[in-house]
Amino acid sequence: MTAGLPYANGNLHVGHIAGAYLPADIYVRYLRACGRDVAFICGSDDHGVPVLLRARKEDVEPQIVVDRFYAQHRTDFAGLGIEFDFYGQTSSPEHHEISQEFFRKVLEAGLLVKKSTEQLYDDGMEMFLPDRYVQGTCPHSDCGQPGALGDQCESCGRTVDPMELADPVSVLSGNRPVVRETSHWFFKLPELSSFLETWLEGHDEWRSAVRNFALGLVREGLVERSMTRDLEWGVPVPIEDAGASGKVLYVWFDAPIGYVTFTSQWCQEQGKGGDEVGKWWKDSDTRIVHFIGEDNTIFHAVIWPAMLKAEGSYCLPDQVVANSFLNIHWPGESEEQKISKSRGTAVWIKDFLSENDPDPLRYYLTAIAPENQRTTYKPEEFISRNNDELVATLGNFVHRTMTFAHKYCGGVVPEEEISSEADLDQIASVERLPERLSEEIEQFRFKSTLQLLMAEARRANQYFDASAPWKTRKEDLSTCRRTIRACLQTVSVLGMVMSPILPFASARIARMLGREESSWGWEYSSASLKGGEILGEAELLFRKIDV
Ligand SMILES: [Zn+2]
């Protein structure tokens, strides 16, 4: 399981988390609960022009910049409970070695070809302007938006050849660049296009937006793409060739190889050798699943699979799960807008966690998950959903159940057997819950997983109200205790199935029930409570947030 490598040139905001990392973490936690053997791999993308631009702005070495963001990203992920098995850096020597070996194998397979080419060059700065060093107007005629970057248009999401940009401008000097000759190694994507078309057609279980976008690109006709750059920062091109000096691998060539590198580093960390890496990357029984933001679709669904096919020894991804972007709608603003650092419209994870618990954000970002289209983060809605749903529905049910269990059942699970129709109905409903949620999670429908979970919590509150244990405790204590037994059983199942989305609350429920968190799996039976089990102390599950 991988999540797209964040660029080590800026902090993480809610859009990043909703796009790749939270869905991946939910899926991984679910698979682990089911007892599956999972490696959850990510790391920072230390190369590329955005890092260089940042380093230049701060007047420091790129390594200083990437190490700082690497540390901050790790802190942010840990604070949100997003727990990778390994979080590496593409600037590591191990990664340089593995990606150079990868490049050599694609070269030997005859799928990389050296060609002389024209490139934009900044005369004043005396350097070539690859990728985001240049900006201009999008060359795709049906788009034509200004501000397109030298590698990708942010308006239409398509890749851009900097030579085709209208009105190009050097990002470094603001000058109009000139054209100069250089040589690069081009990946012969057209030779792999019929393979890619068949492979993509075979994956009709993918989200249609991802598959259709990738198939569209392949059918439109792929072009040879340069996989090297005239830059000093990156993985040096590993060839004995005068033309290779001063060149590095294109960041989108080396970045996805990071998934392999980091898996390898993780295996080494555990004292396991090369065979173990093979188990994850070369064994057809392993499923490789990539979680990404939509802007990375072309790289993960077209170019990376083509690279893997060309290299020849690795398995191809089984799933590429891409999410759309989040917009943001600030209170008082007339309309929603894109999350943007420069316009100051982002909600940064660092800031968020300094004032809030992680679960409410995991909850809200799942509730508004941009699974098939852009959705909108609204700070007021975040607060109301926390207060009305987490606190007033889920938290309230757990709280009233625990209060009754301690006050009227002596802090143990009542021994009375459940017998009334209403009690049995309640148990039957939660008994089906793990399986119903599995059906959603396995199709990567996390938003509807959460809807089913919350519907069950509402149902549980209705059951509590209808059973009126505050009345029965005076009239017939054993009826009251039967109700509380069914409620405790419901709390236990909810605690288990909320663990992928709300891991911190789930752990609190485990403690309240006097159980080990690790004793939960994903079967109803593993959440089942026996009469006489001693409960832990009641805790607050969620906190109300003041508007
Ligand atoms: Zn465009």
Report on the structure:
- With about 550 residues, the chain is an alpha/beta fold.
- The protein has a domain at about 385-525: Isoleucyl-tRNA Synthetase, Domain 1, CATH 1.10.730.10.
- It has helices at about 15-35, 50-60, 60-80, 95-110, 195-200, 210-220, 250-270, 275-280, 295-310, 350-355, 360-365, 380-410, 420-440, 445-465, 470-475, 475-495, 505-510; strands at about 1-5, 40-45, 85-90, 110-120, 125-130, 135, 150, 165-170, 180-185, 225, 230, 245-250, 290-295, 320-325, 325-330, 335-340, 375.
- The strands form six sheets. A four-stranded antiparallel β-sheet has the order 5-4-9-10.
- Strand 13 (about 290-295), helix 9 and strand 14 form a beta-alpha-beta unit.
- The mean pLDDT is about 95.
- The structure holds zinc ion.
- The site of zinc ion has 9 residues, from loops.
Question: Topology, please?
Answer:
Elements: E1 2-3, H1 14-33, E2 41-44, H2 49-58, H3 62-79, E3 86-89, H4 93-108, E4 112-122, E5 127-128, E6 134-137, E7 148-149, E8 166-170, E9 178-187, H5 193-201, H6 208-220, E10 225-226, E11 228-230, E12 247-249, H7 251-269, H8 274-281, E13 289-293, H9 297-311, E14 319-323, E15 326-328, E16 337-338, H10 349-355, H11 358-367, E17 375-377, H12 379-408, H13 421-441, H14 446-467, H15 469-475, H16 477-497, H17 503-512
Parallel strand pairs: 1-13, 2-3, 13-14, 15-17
Antiparallel strand pairs: 4-5, 4-9, 6-7, 6-8, 9-10, 11-12, 15-16
Bound molecules: zinc ion.
Zinc ion is lined by residues 138, 140, 143, 145, 148, 153, 155-156, 158.
